[in-house]
Amino acid sequence: MSGIIGSSGSKSGVIGQTELDYEEGTWTPTFNDFTNVGTVSGRVCNYVRIGNIVNYWIDVWQTNNNMSWTTAARIDSVPTFHGQITSFHSAYNGIVYISSGVQALHCKGYTQGGYIYLTEAHSTVRHLWINGSYALAI
Amino acid sequence: MTLDKIEVNITHKHFSVREIMEDGRYHRRTIMCNADVSSEVQEIQDKAEEVWTDEVKSAWAKFQEEQQAEMEAE
Would you call A138 an interface residue with chain B, using a CB distance cutoff of 8 Å? Predict the structure, then answer.
């Protein structure tokens, strides 16, 4: 077994006889029902697709510790690709840094729709990190 | 950023737009089928006119309502 992954942004990948789709890049999340949403500029909002698996990261930072959102706030524009998404509810892990420290973030994704729900309201948030993945049926 | 390609998602006809940044890296964004695309490049506007029928928009609105109701019930 061998693997060759090309340079950033290229489509390459050879493992044995099978060619895998490979793509990496950045993306721009959009926020609904957030107040004083922080910046993603200079942060890590990246994605990597390997074959039919897509992984992506969200990193939002607010200088004044005053970012907040309501229950069922949404993060839209999750990077999607041509193809049926098999994972209706997909996996997400998240944490927030608020004035009293780091807390786990409960979130739930509907990648078929290209968005993530945050299932709990939070306030006085300085930093929000989420990583997620889903599978494509190709 | 330069438009590279527009992929149409099967389920809700969202556009997965891939662009190439000045440093050569890819950038992706998803444009949902109820979005205002009037400020987008002509190619995206034309694709929206072609693909986003009233039926597609209605199905997306219904899907969102169902998901919202499910969220509130949990």
Answer: no
